[in-house]
Amino acid sequence: MTTTNHEHGPAIAATGLRKSYGDKAVLDGIDIQVPAGTIFSLLGPNGAGKTTVVNILSTLISADGGQARIAGHDVATEAQAVRAAIGVTGQFSAVDGLITGEENMLLMADLHHLSKDEGRRVTAELLERFDLVEAAQKPASTYSGGMKRRLDIAMTLVGSPRIIFLDEPTTGLDPRSRHTMWQIIRELVSGGTTVFLTTQYLEEADQLADRIAVLNGGRLVAEGSAEELKRLVPGGHVRLRFSDPVAYERAATALRETSRDDEALTLQVPSDGSQRELRAILDWLDAAGIEADELSVHTPDLDDVFFALTGSPVTADNNTADNVTADNKTVKETVR
Q: For residue range 56-115, what is the model confidence (pLDDT) as tens digits?
């Protein structure tokens, strides 16, 4: 049996994607590779082009240049095949509040041309999976924000997509609902689904993503795992606290490139937080017969990475191009 190339290729592959609105270049040559069964997160300030990327890859709008393949299908020439392989949950809920949760699900089943029996079976399974059975007969307008988001994703899964685009799926949710959504996303991926996630919450990308790309000014300015990105930013250090002023002075004199706090008797030693560097510091302290009362390791987080790479967040006034693809609704920047 001969296998097609895309069965072993990436779930999502894009090269040189370009998109402009008027004289504003929103995407200026974007390359993306997402292996099947992984979570890829796209970070960036408002107006960076995150939604534009999702809309191009999901065939909602066309790129001005470049190529993209989803599940092996070209988004420009095989749009129907791409749509059959994907599910999309946008920033703004697709739930119809005038009908019940179950009716929303059955409507999606009809749109996917499922038989009546198959539609009811899939609906029942997904309502149970997303803990919506009790609310299934109530109008969706009565649902909480977290329940609407769960219903939104359940509706996306009716067609059994292999690849799901989640465009800021937890914006506006309370912490409990956000953690519930994270668990749902993890379960999807453990079942083999590929997730392309855009988010304003850096913790979300840190918690979920196998790989993270940072989009700024129409370009990808960095890509890697959360740990790889954190190592791009200086500022990691080992903090040593002493109660003995003599030991503190000996350590401060002998350790190079150390920042002192004479009042608190603490030293900061630059470090990338690796086990090797930590062991070297401990070995030196032991060899010198110096004992610190407290040792703690501090590494940059994604907040540090984000602001080092993007500078100040782009204000809503400057993100007209991306707002075109978000129904002209402004999503408030929640990154501090």
A: 999 999 999 999 999 999 999 999 999 999 999 877 778 999 999 999 999 999 999 999
pLDDT for 304 equals: 81
Quote the CA–CA distance of 139 and 60 in Å, as a whole number. 29
| Sign of the alpha-carbon dihedral angle for 175, 181, 187, 189 | negative
Measure CA 140 to chain center: 27
> Residue 336: which pLDDT band, with cuts at 50, 70 and 90?
very low
Whole-angstrom Cα distance, residue 228 to residue 47?
25
pLDDT score recorded for residue 46: 82
Across 75-102, b (16+ Cβ under 10 Å) vs e yields beebbebbbebbbbbbbebebeeeebbb
The answer to whether residues 29 and 35 touch, using CB atoms and an 8 Å cutoff, is no
Collect all residues with Cβ–Cβ distance below 8 Å to 95 and sequence separation of at least 6: 104, 140, 143, 148, 151, 152, 155
Identify the sign of the CA torsion 202, 204, 207, 208: negative
Asked if 224 and 236 touch (Cβ cutoff 8 Å), the reply is no
Name the 3-class secondary structure at 223.
Answer: strand
Domains and their CATH numbers in the chain: 5-95+143-230+307-324 (3.40.50.300), 237-298 (3.30.70)
Which tokens go with 8? 């072993």
